Amino acid sequence: MSKADFVRVMFNDISHKYDFLNDVLSVGTHRWWKKRFVNLIKKNNPKTALDCATGTGDIAFMLNKSVPEVTGIDFSENMIEFAVERAKKQNSQVKFKVADIQKLPFEDKAFDAASISFGIRNVESLEMGLKELGRVSKSLYILEFGQPKNKLYSKFYFSLLRLYVPLFGLISKRGDAYEYLIASSESFPSAEKFVDIMKKNTDFKDINYTPVFGGIAYIYSAK
User: Fold this and answer.
1) 200 in a domain, yes or no?
2) DSSP bridge partners of 218
3) pLDDT digits over 144-176, tens only?
4) N or C terminus of the chain with fewer C-beta within 10 Å?
């Protein structure tokens, strides 16, 4: 099974518990991280925004409070079904559709801003995904897990995460999903390494990053 197929099946399987598991796994801190992320995007007053790997739509709904036109995409059909239901309940105008980041069905520079939170490391071809994100947007914002630069803190954090895996395996019935979360977070290039990859695969010149919680995650912005 390819990485893309594994990730799609995994998120389809846990979609009905995804929001609950996020709250438990992060002890609610993911909501603060996302709010900080969205506030950064809103500073440039975009009129159109694309939220990729949107999941059940958290970032898309938050953006839509100040961005008039928001589109959310995900290649997990079940996630998009949940996002559409949430939109109906909230009477939201956010548009959701199933789409692959590696083949985005949009015109060049169609969006003032594109965002992706905790999803870029799941893309089969990171380079292709970044090229597509850069193609369709005038600015790009990424929130993703990484590794703390402090070695002791990093070792402690990932050791603590491993203690959680059996619990989440019982709740989600997909222990492999959370084993994948740890493995992908430990190995995914972060900070300067990821900035270098962004520079090589997009035409953005002004690229910056900010560590979150000491480097558990990073926010990248490109213009």
Assistant:
1) yes
2) 144, 211
3) 989 999 999 999 888 877 877 666 666 656 556
4) N
